[in-house]
């Protein structure tokens, strides 16, 4: 990687750390959107390691625009600031970290190796149309299981593990990332982007790396046995020579302001364009519509009662028949007046929290 000057900064509101280019002013924290980042000492034990691989931003602009359009539409009483154009113009690049570990593994192992084979049999059926018995050939796929055992001594590279406490939540809401697109990092690929620093120490992530190591060992033992399947795999590994680096995953961050001026962060997958965030319906236009409908209901009720009074004074059957209809219309309009406020309240209550980035 070509060396480039970077600064480590922290948000004093949410205590999240980032690495960013030294040039230029410090941005507002993309996590809480509350305050500008503050420069700090980058030496945090167990949280720093060289960046080895970076997955590039590969989402086509058309997919990004569609993702933002889906996020900013599809509900009533949308805040004026929540538009796909605003989200697109405010986006900034952010890389999320995952740990990569290289290590040596020695182990004795045993398992059951499965080998596919076919069994050919014949089934006789009576054909009603020809009044004859007919034989049909049937091929059945089966697996032959045999015990296998051996020893393994391998060097494994770039086994990934979570580097953030929020890693599972991010993947659940945005989706997985394609690690196969990752490339060796260089200064150009990170130009101008923020890098989220791990908040989970490498030592704590080791237990999450072991299952990935086991999967690789299972596949290598299967290939060594020339088997089609492997089950009941059991090993007693001894690991040594752990070396930790980082893999960076691409996301965009952006934001919008609700009707009260509160900023809400929006997280966008840098490979698929899938957007996630808290959408807030605006209360003020819903309240105004409810007031208008309520006023119409009161007016309709007043006119209906007036028609009833006039019909009793003037003896008009037409006014007398219209009076109850007007009262019914006033009742329906009064009930509808509650709907806009109820919709906004229910919609906002059902929204997920702001992105866990």
Describe what you observe in this structure.
- By secondary structure, the chain is of the alpha+beta class.
- It has 3 domains: 233 residues, no CATH class; 34 residues, no CATH class; 67 residues.
- It is 32% helix and 36% strand.
- It has 7 helices and 11 strands.
- Strands 1, 2, 3, 4, 5, 6, 7, 8, 9, 10 and 11 form an 11-stranded mixed beta sheet that branches.
- β5 and β6 form a beta hairpin.
- α5 runs antiparallel to α6 and α5 packs antiparallel against α7.
Please give a quick description of this structure.
By secondary structure, the protein is α+β, with helices and mostly antiparallel strands. Helices cover 32% and strands 36% of the residues.
Topology:
Elements lengths: L5 E5 L6 E5 L16 E2 L11 E4 L6 H12 L11 H6 L2 E36 L4 E31 L4 H8 L8 E2 L9 E3 L5 H24 L3 E29 L5 E7 L5 E3 L5 H32 L2 H20 L2 H12 L7
Parallel strand pairs: 4-9, 5-8
Antiparallel strand pairs: 1-2, 1-3, 2-8, 4-7, 5-6, 5-9, 9-10, 10-11
